[in-house]
């Protein structure tokens, strides 16, 4: 997909880096990842582990309340 820069209108160039891919404007260096499907960046492994631990604790607490 070819996108134009929301800042200056120049065609953006894709910077392909797997899940960290984005587009970069060659004129003003603005970056964007809207055409990559989502603006949310992937979570790092530590954040995912923390989220899993919270979920497990929540399940344990609800299991004992029944």
Integer-rounded radius of gyration = 19 Å
Strand adjacency order, main sheet: 1-2-3
The proportion of strand residues reads 5-15%
Shape, principal axes of CA atoms: rod-shaped
Class per helix and strand makeup: alpha+beta
| N-to-C span | 52 Å
The quaternary structure here is: single chain
Number of strands: 3
Tally of separate helices: 1
Stretches where pLDDT is under 50 for at least 5 consecutive residues are: none
Key attributes of the depicted protein:
alpha+beta, 3-stranded antiparallel beta sheet, 3 strands, rod-shaped, 66 residues
Description:
The protein is rod-shaped. The chain has one helix and three strands. It has one helix at residues 45-65; strands at 13-15, 22-24, 31-32. Strand 1 and strand 2 form a beta hairpin. It has one domain (13-65). It has a three-stranded antiparallel β-sheet, with no helix packed on it. It is of the alpha+beta class and 66 residues long.
Question: What can be said about this structure in brief?
Answer:
The protein has 66 residues and is α+β, with helices and mostly antiparallel strands.
Can you lay out the helices and strands and say which pair or pack?
Elements: E1 13-15, E2 22-24, E3 31-32, H1 45-65
Antiparallel strand pairs: 1-2, 2-3
């Amino acid at each position: 997909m070819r996108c134009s820069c929301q800042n200056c209108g120049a065609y953006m160039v894709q910077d392909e880096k797997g899940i960290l891919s984005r587009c970069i404007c060659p004129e003003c260096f603005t970056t964007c990842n809207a055409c990559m499907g989502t603006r949310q960046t992937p979570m790092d492994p530590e954040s995912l582990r923390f989220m899993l631990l919270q979920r497990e604790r929540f399940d344990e607490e609800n299991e004992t309340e029944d």
